[in-house]
Every structure is written in C-alpha cells, then in structure tokens.
Automatic annotation (TrEMBL):
It comes from the Bacteria. Residues 3-64, 69-131, 144-206 form the S1 motif domain. Gene3D superfamilies: Nucleic acid-binding proteins, Winged helix-like DNA-binding domain superfamily/Winged helix DNA-binding domain. InterPro entries: CvfB_fam (IPR014464), CvfB_S1_st (IPR039566), CvfB_WH (IPR040764), NA-bd_OB-fold (IPR012340), S1_domain (IPR003029), WH-like_DNA-bd_sf (IPR036388). Pfam families: S1_2, WHD_CvfB. This is GntR family transcriptional regulator. Belongs to the CvfB family.
C-alpha cells in the first residue's frame, strides 16, 4: 500500500507526454512529471518516489528528497506566515503548513522550529506541528542498555539536552556526557545509557566500555592521517585541549591511546603521539 508523505516503490503503468503514471493501489494512478522521470523509463519499471500533494492539492510523485517524511521530526525554517498558519521549507516545491492550532508558540519568518510531520486525517493534507509531546509514545520503551539509536536534538535544559529517540520517545543526554557542540534539530547516532525505574531514558553519544574505545579509535587514526601522522596531544594534555580537538573526555582519549599502542597502531613520544 502506498503512503502519502513517504517514499514508496511503485510500478509504471503508463507513459504520456506529461510523464509516467504510477500504480499507487488504493490511491489510484499518480503522475511522476517528466522532470523527475529517469532516462529510458519503461512500462512496469519500479521507481522509488515520494508522494505528496501539489499546490492544487493533487497527489503527485517526485524523486526529490524532502528534509523529512511523515512520521518524522525535523528542524525546518519558516518561509512565510499568513492567516492560515506558518509555511516551512522542507525541500520540496510546495511548502509545509503548520496551522496556528499546531504551533507550540507563534512562529516567525526566518526562524527554525523542530516539528513533527504527519498526514491530517480530517483534511488528508500533509502538515506539521511543533507540539511535540502529542506525537511521542507515552508507553514504556523497549530498549536495551547499550543499544544504538537515532537521535534528534530537541532542546537544551539545565541538565543537558533533550533528544527524540527513533522518532518515538524522549531521552536525555546529561551535560557531563556531551563532548561536542549540539544544535536544535541535529540528527546523530547515540546509545541507550540507562532506562530508569520511572521509565525515563538516559542517553550517551558514545558506546560504553570497549565499544566506546573502538568507536573513537577510528576517529583518532583518521585525525592523525590528516595531520602527517602526528598530534601534539598525549596523556598529559589537559582535558580542555582534548575535548576541544576531539570532542571526547580525557578518560576516553587515554583509553584509546593505550588500546591502539597495544595493537602497534600508535607510538607515544615525549612531544605527542604518532603513527608508526
């Protein structure tokens, strides 16, 4: 079944002077305009397309990629505001509407807001909402500690950063676990650090234990390769210098150096560290 506001793989059932018509099942036949048509497109070809409503509220297909799909959160910029609501740039010709009743606070032109994209069941139009809590799962999450997840940074608090986990649940990255700059709407990989008794989730940007060392090893080796195989930083360098350069704690930095040295991939000298 084809879904509006998402990518779908559909079959070509007709080719006309306007483009190709695709079989979208219950949604009917949907036009993929010529400007998006792949070269040498033929009947029965299967195409991966995004389905949305054009400016005339007609279903249309495109091979362009929006900044986010229905069911996802994204930080989008307001292009204009009128009596209907705010219109966001989401990477497609038709801007995305945030009705006034879906705005957590009044939106302003030029500013970015974290929103949830969804298909309005009443109007059958794609819209967005900045009332995030309405679209996050209230049921306990079934994650495992150490599990890798996708995060969307939502807000900074006194404790750290609130993040949305896999477009479904709230989580928190404590300030003490943040070793690189984070921004609203940023998407990045994280890990489940702890699931508390009250159901709340603590997050980490690095896998704990051995995995954490391995994760940073690749980054450190890449840094050395880009700097003629040498770095003036070593186990006596200040935590501030290490954090500023690599975005990790001194503890992680020292553990990684030791691990790589044992494997013969790194040499420690009085002036720094070097590739052998």
């Amino acid at each position: 079944m084809a879904n509006i506001g998402q990518f779908n793989t559909l079959s070509v059932i007709a080719i006309t002077e306007n483009g190709a018509y695709l079989d979208a099942g219950p949604l009917g036949e949907i036009l993929l305009p010529n400007r998006y048509l792949p070269e040498n497109c033929q009947l029965d070809d299967k195409l991966n397309v995004f389905i949305y409503l054009d400016s005339a509220d007609r279903l249309i297909a495109t091979t362009e990629t929006p900044f986010a799909q229905a069911g996802e959160f994204a930080s989008l910029q307001v292009k204009q505001v009128n009596k209907i609501g705010a219109f966001l740039n989401w990477g497609l010709p038709k801007d995305l509407l945030v009705p006034f009743n879906q705005q957590h606070k009044k939106m302003e032109v030029g500013k970015h807001y974290l929103v949830y994209i969804f298909l309005d069941s009443k109007t059958e139009r794609l819209v967005a909402s900045s009332k995030l809590d309405k679209y996050l799962d209230i049921w306990p999450a079934e994650y495992q500690e150490g599990q890798q997840v996708e995060l969307t940074i939502a807000a900074q608090t006194d404790l750290g950063f609130k993040a949305i986990i896999n477009h479904q649940h709230w989580g928190l990255i404590f300030a003490s676990d943040v070793f690189k700059p984070l921004r609203l709407g940023q998407k990045l990989t994280g890990f489940i650090k702890q699931i508390r008794d009250d159901g709340r989730i603590n997050l980490s940007l690095s896998r704990a234990g051995k995995g954490k060392v391995i994760d940073f090893s690749d980054q450190l080796l890449s840094h050395l390769q880009k700097h003629n195989g040498f770095s003036p930083l070593h186990d006596k360098s200040s935590p501030e210098e290490i954090k500023r350069t690599f975005g990790v704690s001194k503890k992680t930095f020292k553990a990684t150096i030791g691990n790589l040295m044992k494997k013969g991939k790194l040499v420690i000298e009085s002036q720094g560290i070097r590739l052998p």
